[in-house]
Amino acid sequence: MFRRSLDSPIETNIKNLAQQRDFHGNPQDSTLEKTMSANENRFAPVIEELRQGHVPETALPTIREFVVHLIIRTKNIRQGFVEAAKDLFDQIGEAIPASDRKKWKNRIKKAARKEMRDPKWRDQMRYLSRAQRVLLIRSLEKGMQEIDFRPILSGLFNTFREKVDLEGAAHTGHINALTKAIAPEPRMKTISHLHWQSVSYAPHSFILGDVGVFGRSEGETIYRNLLSAASGRIEIVVAPISHSVCLFGTSGEIELPSIEEINENSAQLSRELFLASRSTDREARYQAQLGKRAALVAETEFSDIVTDLLPSE
Q: How far does Cα 110 stand from its chain's mean position?
């Protein structure tokens, strides 16, 4: 096992890997662990067939379900959502103090006017004369023009951020999503057009990263985590299922990636670790690449979101 946090690999039994207490919720409160085990037992014979190079026509629905399940089940995904939320919060926190004061004032003015149209305000203001109402509104608007709301908003946002339990929210959301469906139908549809093939290679060819499955859409030039932002029809899915066998889902006649390309993407898109059937200089080189592209949302994508939300002066 090669980890980002360790200089040297650890030789271990695979039964000891990826163990986390109540990762799928407390068994006393949730049946998800039993559901996962039952489906793993159902997937196992199909995976064995794939490792033998067989892709039975009758197994295609199960293969698609297995691939989608791998995409959404991992700790990689759960941590990815937490990391993405933290990155977005950080960028918003930095952008508020530098944002456009006039735009904030205009937004707050519009919000105040909308609030005053609420029946509870109208009922109170109808006891005032028209001149008094105009004077009150003008006074409020003048006060808004003189106040710099950015420090107030920044303080409110920081208070909100401190109270949000991102890890807890990601844990609960992930469990709820898996409980609802171990392979959601909308995601099944995104790969329903692919043709599947299981290809055997020489022993020790592949590392097995915690990203599990990755792919590429039409028009894209690089592989990515299939839960990251994307546009277009999926063109290829890559799923190493042993050190010498890789499952591919392809749309039409597409050149398959090389072993080196598969391993580099597996390492870069993984967040914490990968497994390998040997330890050589090659695996050490992959370890140096661990996590380089593990983020579900690129920093530039967040920057664009924040810029649209909070344009600077």
A: 34
